Amino acid sequence: MKFSEIKNHLALFRVGIAGAGGLGSNCAVALARCGVGTLVLSDFDIIEPANLNRQYYFTNQIGMLKTVALKDNIARINPDIIVIAHTEKLNRSNIPEIFEGCDVVVEAFDKDEMKEMLIETVQTKMPGTPVVVGSGLAGWGKSDIISYRKIDETLYVCGDESTVAGDEFPPMAPRVGIVANMQANTVVEILMKKTKDYFQT
Amino acid sequence: MKILLNNRLEEFNKEPLSINEMLELKKFSFKMRIIKLNGVLIPKEKYDSTFIHEGDNVNMLYLMSGG
């Protein structure tokens, strides 16, 4: 299959990305480069200098909302992508509205309890919508323990499922990038198996 | 009873077993997790009232901070 054909297929789909930090910003950029038609971004944070060790932002974007900056960055990479940016904090009641119509939702939060909340909400309130989780990416090295696991048709996990990030064990560009791109790779794999009516809106 | 736990065969001397009992028997102490029983996500507050039976398929996923 030629890349032009792959791109035309991926253009039909909409992917939600919950969080625009290390996982979300890198995953969104990878999906935009592949041509995924619509990306629904959600994050309430602004860019801080410490984010630049792993997140897809630039020094002149410090202080900007992550969603606004990411939308700009995606437009510079692939202007064909439609980016819908939400800046309210995600919770159990707004997740189904914000990600309504998404073919896949990427879990790209930092904190474990937010990850849990998002997975529980999508799995129970958006039945049939696959969630691609990132879990375990702190530190450096140990590329061999980072993996991908399909639990069932609606739940996938990327990461080492064992390292917890903290001040003394920070998330850094290489391992975060590996996991973010594994999530994007999983999304592409899911979407390439899906068919979509071309006339559907 | 025999069950599938993360696609591996596990045997327990008791049936049924609540999710919390299973976690204790297996000494799974890490708290941030997602559990699916036969494809259905079980919320934390139902770990005592949800029971695992012979032949059930249990999947568990640990959630690690960092992103």
Would you kindly provide a written description of the structure presented here, covering whatever features stand out?
- The complex is a heterodimer of chains A (201) and B (67).
- The mean pLDDT of chain A is 97.
- Helices cover 36% and strands 17% of the residues of chain A.
- The longest helix of chain A is centred in the C-terminal third of the chain and has 21 residues, at 173-193.
- Chain A is globular and about 50 Å long.
- Chain A has 6 helices and 7 strands; from the N terminus they run αβαβαβαβαβββα.
- Chain A has one domain (3-193): Rossmann fold (3-Layer(aba) Sandwich), CATH 3.40.50.
- In chain A, 46% of the residues are buried.
- By secondary structure, chain A is of the alpha/beta class.
- In chain A, helix 5 links the parallel strand 4 (104-107) and strand 5.
- In chain A, strands 3-2-1-4-5-7-6 form a 7-stranded mixed beta sheet, with helices on both faces.
- Chain B has 67 residues and is mainly β.
- Chain B has a single domain (2-62), classed as Ubiquitin-like (UB roll).
- Helix content of chain B is 10%, strand content 37%.
- Chain B has 1 helix and 7 strands.
- Chain B has one helix at 19-25, and strands at 2-5, 8-11, 17-18, 33-37, 40-41, 51-52, 57-62.
- Chain B has a 5-stranded mixed beta sheet, with no helix packed on it.
- In chain B, strand 4 and strand 5 form a beta hairpin.
- Chain B is globular and about 40 Å long.
- The model of chain B has no long low-confidence stretch (mean pLDDT 96).
